[in-house]
Every structure is written in C-alpha cells, then in structure tokens.
Amino acid sequence: MPTPGTRLAGKTALVTGAARGIGAAIARAFAAEAARVIVTDIDVEGGQATASAIGGTFARLDVASEAGWDEIASRFPALDVLVNNAGITGFEGPLEGAPPAHDPESARLADWRAVHAVNLDGTFLGCRYGIRAMRARGAGSIINISSRSGLVGIPMAAAYASSKAAIRNHTKSVALYCAGQGLNIRCNSIHPAAVMTPMWEPMLGTGPDRADREAALVADTPLRRFGRPEEVAALAVLLASDEAAYMTGAELTIDGGILAGSAAPPG
Ligand SMILES: NC(=O)c1ccc[n+]([C@@H]2O[C@H](COP(=O)([O-])OP(=O)(O)OC[C@H]3O[C@@H](n4cnc5c(N)ncnc54)[C@H](O)[C@@H]3O)[C@@H](O)[C@H]2O)c1
C-alpha cells in the first residue's frame, strides 16, 4: 500500500475492470492519493469488495455494452480521470482441454470479435464517455491500459495483440482530437507485460510444475521476475495527476525491460 498522499485530491476517477488485478491496484492507489474512485466491473462481488475497501463507489459496467456506458454517463456525468483497464485475453476459461486457437490461421471469427468487443470497443466507448464527461471542466486524464502485446506480434494470441495495438493507436487519436478541440484532456497508454494477476492463472495452472512455468515465463525478462499490479498503479497515478500535465499521446512500457532489447540480440 502506498503512503497516503494528496496527488489526486479533488479528482473523481473511474476505473474499469477494477474488481481485481491491475484495475483493483489502480483503484487502491488512486484512493490512497485522495481521489474519489468509482470502481466498475462485470464482477459485482469483487467490484463491491474493492470499492468498500477504499471507500469508493461501485457501479456494474460491461465495457463492451454501449447501453452500460450510457447508464454510467447519466449517473456520473462529470469526471476528471478515466482508466480503461478492463481487458480479456480470450483464454479466460479453465485449462481443461485445448485452449481456443487464436493464431492468424485458425482463429474463429467469433473469438476474434469477442476479444475486440471488450478490449477495443470497450476502450473506444470509454474514451467517448470520458471526453464528454471531462468537456465541461475542459480538463482530464484518460489512461488506456494496452500491453506489450500492442507493440509486438503475438502469433498465438493474435486477437489480443491486434486489440491492444488498436488501443495504442486510438489513444493517440484521442490525444490529438482533444488537443485540437482546445481541451486539456490528456490521453496516454500504458503497456505492461508479465504483471502477476489472476489473468495468468490459466497459463500457470495448479499442478506441481506451476513454479517452473512461472520461472519459464520470465526467463527472458531482463529483470527476471513478474511485475506487481502496484507498480503499474504507480504509473497510472503519475498520468492521472497534474504532474503529467505535458504528457499526452504517449505510450509507456512497464515490462521489466522486455522491450528494451531484441530476442535476437547482436551480442
Ligand atoms: N497482467 C498482465 O501481465 C498484463 C500485461 C499486459 C496488459 N495487461 C492488461 O491489463 C489489464 C488488466 O489486466 P489484469 O492482469 O489485471 O487482468 P485480470 O483478468 O486479473 O482482471 C481483469 C478484470 O476485468 C474485468 N472484466 C473482464 N471483462 C470485462 C468487461 N467486459 N467489462 C468490465 N470488466 C471486465 C474482470 O472481471 C476482471 O476483474 C487488461 O487490459 C490486460 O490486458 C495485463
């Protein structure tokens, strides 16, 4: 838990997918910096738990639902900070049986669309709501959680990688649009990799080889460990705060150094 501060005092922030993982850590970090936090998720129980632990407000929101965002807009018409964090890999189901194929040759259109509906449509709808909710005050910060997978190709998770790459680009369109409108609404993307959250559970499994799988997954990470959700949350606090007033359209990697080099280094 970060030391309580006031870096976000007076700001109202909405975080999607905040029942657990990175979203929950961001909600906690925002509250610790004195923001009023609106916790949203499709997981009602988890979302309520996050909200009550930080004195925030919970609202159920499926980010892929336009009607859901309309309800949010009527309940929370004004906002200072929005974090479009909710995301899925498409491999959320239990590990039994073969995982669905998401490679470019055999991915099913329905699976492709399901991943894009949450990750990309959800971010588009969120940004649209965020701009409208920040327009009256003429200022705000929109933070889109993309991924390392939005910057490089991921052959076996092509839908996820495509959706995250589109989030990166849409972030820049939003940043330029807002600036062009004379609005001080900033929009930036965060690109995490290998952050230990429940998202990794299907890949780690529960068997005796779990520790080996975990070690193998970070073997090529320069810092040789998984990141912590709180480390991503710290970056979100910076982008949400007025300290980042000159940052818009930026993409920030937080990946233990993975993207600093190449898998085929010159030596
Ligand atoms: N953990 C990582 O290593 C990592 C790496 C890169 C990017 N990310 C991104 O960070 C974000 C958070 O990931 P995480 O690891 O905390 O995942 P997670 O699976 O632990 O949490 C995701 C949360 O989103 C919620 N959610 C799923 N679908 C939703 C929907 N349609 N509407 C609203 N909420 C929904 C889930 O209920 C859950 O609470 C995601 O966008 C993910 O792609 C994570």
Automatic annotation (TrEMBL):
Family in the record: Belongs to the short-chain dehydrogenases/reductases (SDR) family.
Protein name, as recorded: Short-chain dehydrogenase/reductase SDR
Organism of origin: Frigidibacter mobilis
Classification lineage: Bacteria, Pseudomonadati, Pseudomonadota, Alphaproteobacteria, Rhodobacterales
Keyword Oxidoreductase: yes
Record carries keyword Membrane: no
Single Gene Ontology MF annotation: oxidoreductase activity
Assigned keywords, A-Z: Oxidoreductase
Domain of life assignment: Bacteria
